[in-house]
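Tokens in:
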């Protein structure tokens, strides 16, 4: 057999070398991000940037979060996490009628980390706690949606696309509705805020294409949320090994449409904490998803219009 050696500078060999070098770099980076402390650091970043901005919440959370980031030993302290959970839990309870529901999930996770820190194997307890938190959150979310007729028939999603400013880009680009019609819908809804006005139906401007988009989003939401619930709660390893892909798919598809940074970030923190250590590139995928959630908040449609 004749062996043919390609020189290092060969035009065929050079791209293969670069590809191999990129793969090695990705492997090293993912290994670094796979450190058990990374989900805790990202949780502290989340707490400092995506929780309540009321001073009595922001001051203690920023102080505790900063100290936790710069003092690694403190991140293994149960008292530290209990203090953080107490602040977040008290704030969530005080504003329980108007606060975003993921603020409760953040407090639960900090409490779980504190409980785990008291045991002999904190990483294992955090892994189990994170998996169960994700599983039951999605199980309850899916159950609520299935029991709500206005969600299953698509009317909830249609109403949201027509009235919620966070969905305006999807409504205009994908749903084909004019931005002026969206503004008219919001003006029409303001009539309902007038306590002196007589109760009356408010017509909303829409398009047939938007109605189809609403139904597609409705069934995709039910499918992906139900899949995440099953994959995270199923006791069979063969099924559970697909849970990370499902969770990342949910975060990327959901928060690209409705960028809610806090919810996206806490799901990434939980996903990263519960992952199986043997899955080599998952930490890199989760951290990339963490960054993508923030990128989704940029007004890409407006920027593209300015650039054009």
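Residues out:
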């Amino acid at each position: 057999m004749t062996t043919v050696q390609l020189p290092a500078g060969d035009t065929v060999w050079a791209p293969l070398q670069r590809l191999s070098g990129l793969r090695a770099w990705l492997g090293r980076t993912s290994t670094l991000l796979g450190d058990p402390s990374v989900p805790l650091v990202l949780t502290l970043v989340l707490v400092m940037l995506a929780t309540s901005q009321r001073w009595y919440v922001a001051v203690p959370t920023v102080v505790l979060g900063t100290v936790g980031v710069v003092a690694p030993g403190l991140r293994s302290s149960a008292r530290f996490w209990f203090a953080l959970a107490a602040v977040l839990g008290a704030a969530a309870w005080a504003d329980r009628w108007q606060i975003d529901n993921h603020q409760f999930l953040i407090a639960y996770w900090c409490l779980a980390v504190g409980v785990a820190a008291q045991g002999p194997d904190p990483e294992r307890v955090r892994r189990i706690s994170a998996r169960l938190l994700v599983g039951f959150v999605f199980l309850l979310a899916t159950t609520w949606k299935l029991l709500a007729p206005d969600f299953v028939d698509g009317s909830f999603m249609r109403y949201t696309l027509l009235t919620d400013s966070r969905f305006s880009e999807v409504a205009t680009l994908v749903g084909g509705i004019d931005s002026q019609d969206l503004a008219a819908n919001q003006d029409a809804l303001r009539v309902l805020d007038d306590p002196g006005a007589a109760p009356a139906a408010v017509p909303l401007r829409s398009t047939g294409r938007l109605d189809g988009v609403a139904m597609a989003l409705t069934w995709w939401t039910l499918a992906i949320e139900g899949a995440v619930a099953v994959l995270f709660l199923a006791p069979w390893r063969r099924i559970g090994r697909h849970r990370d892909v499902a969770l990342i798919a949910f975060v990327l598809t959901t928060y690209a449409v409705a960028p809610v940074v806090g919810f996206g970030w806490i799901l990434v923190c939980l996903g990263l904490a519960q992952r199986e250590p043997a899955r080599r590139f998952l930490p890199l995928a989760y951290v990339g998803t963490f960054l993508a959630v923030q990128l989704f908040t940029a007004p890409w449609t407006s920027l593209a219009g300015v650039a054009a």
